Amino acid sequence: MQAVPLPALAGWMWVRDGWSLFRSQPLAFFSWAMFVSLMLMIATITPPIGPIFFIVLMPTATLLSLSAGRHASAGQRILLGTWIEPLRQPSVFRRLLAMGGLYVAFCLLLGLAVFMPFSGEVTEALKNVEQTNDLLPLMEAVKTPMLIFGIFYVIMAAVFWFAPALVGWHGIRITQALFFSWIACWRNKWAFLVYGLCWLAVFLGIDTLISLLALMGLAPNTAATIQVPINVVATSVLYCSFYTSYVAVFKDNERMSASEVESQ
Fold first, then answer.
1. Of these four, 15, 55, 134, 263, which has the most CB atoms within 10 Å of its CB?
2. CA gyration radius for the chain?
3. Taking the CB of residue 77, how many other CB atoms lie within 10 A of it?
4. pLDDT score for 257
5. Which contacts of 85-88 are long-range, i.e. CB under 8 A and separated by 24 or more positions?
6. Is the peptide bond before 145 cis (omega within 30 degrees of 0)?
7. How confident is the model over 106-126, as a mean pLDDT?
8. pLDDT digit string (tens) for 223-240?
9. How far apart are CA 144 and CA 135, in angstroms?
10. For residue 246, which of 200, 197, 198, 177 has the smallest C-alpha distance?
């Protein structure tokens, strides 16, 4: 697989093209984002099994999002059967689950490696919270390990970013897919930096807008209700931009016409 190195401005173009792709079939993409959000909400209230199960399914959800983007880009309607179409190929779902399990293992190992050296400080801070109800010492104790975790998590995310598509569409082995994904992200690191900053600005902008509405007198419950569909739309566009980034980086390998999509 040959990844094309792109300029930093490409990160913004992925977001822009994701918006255009979303507008082609907004209801389908909105419904998919709502479904994923619902699964995430269920996962957060059913620890520890729920979060682990959700993370294991992340590569599968990524491939389904990419497949929907591919169909929409080819001018085809996204129907209910479209979502599970990539999983009909032999062994694809099993390999995606294996990738999800590997992702969970990496997250756990990374968390242990980062937080173990600070376990004494965090334990003392937790005891202090129980005695004084002051969260400030705990926040100070976890600030450094969280920063380190965040840095290494970005690297891990790059390793897994394109891997579901490479496994599901190109039949590449998991280890090779992870390697190619890392190389592709590294070659386009400045584009991904701009891409990440764009999405950070989008979600911070939404939060700022809702906060301004609340300051202007809008009831907090009403403001929260308004924010939910706006966040879902933004998330829908984010999922669409997964496909636009894939096509831009691997465009020499993405030559599937509409007729080829139908024959999958």
1. 15
2. 20
3. 10
4. 35
5. 85/264, 86/168, 86/169, 86/264, 87/60, 87/63
6. no
7. 87
8. 889 999 999 999 999 999
9. 16
10. 177
